Amino acid sequence: MLVIAPCLLSPYLVYRGAKGKDLAAARGIQELLGRHPGVEVLAYPCPEFILRGFPRAPAPREVYERLGMREVAGRVAGFVERVIAEERPARVVLVGVKGSPTCAARVTTSGDPDAYPHRSLAALPRRTERKVQSS
Ligand code: SF4
Predict the structure, then answer these.
(1) Does residue 68 form part of some domain?
(2) Ligand 1 near 72 CB (within 6 A)
(3) Is residue 38 part of a domain?
(4) What's the pLDDT tens digit per position in 46-99?
(5) Do the Cβ atoms of 124 and 59 come closer than 8 Å?
(6) Boundaries of domain holding 60
(7) 127 is a domain residue
């Protein structure tokens, strides 16, 4: 079973939306999975999307911790644990996102939460309505 950060498959979840290199990486992963159709994929819910929505300002791990990420990440981790316990895959491979404050396997962003411009979080425009065109 491949446990993977969902933004690696669908980079529209990244805090500032998808960029060319994200889309190229996602295509590469999708092609790789296409060559190995027997691999079960568990793309867990994006913790930052749950906590902050979209779009969201970039923030280091310590700021996310202050905003309540430990509780959200714990729920997401609990979901992953439960799926693994129920499905009992022969092997589990976890793929994180280098530099992510939330999903990094080893290297994450770090910063002083007291120096972070918290007001800029509130100022970030939210997409509250969207026009839907019918064909
Ligand atoms: S929180 Fe994880 S899944 Fe969500 S955008 Fe960041 S790295 Fe990707």
Answers:
(1) yes
(2) no
(3) yes
(4) 999 999 999 999 999 999 999 999 999 999 999 999 999 999 999 999 999 999
(5) no
(6) 2-116
(7) no
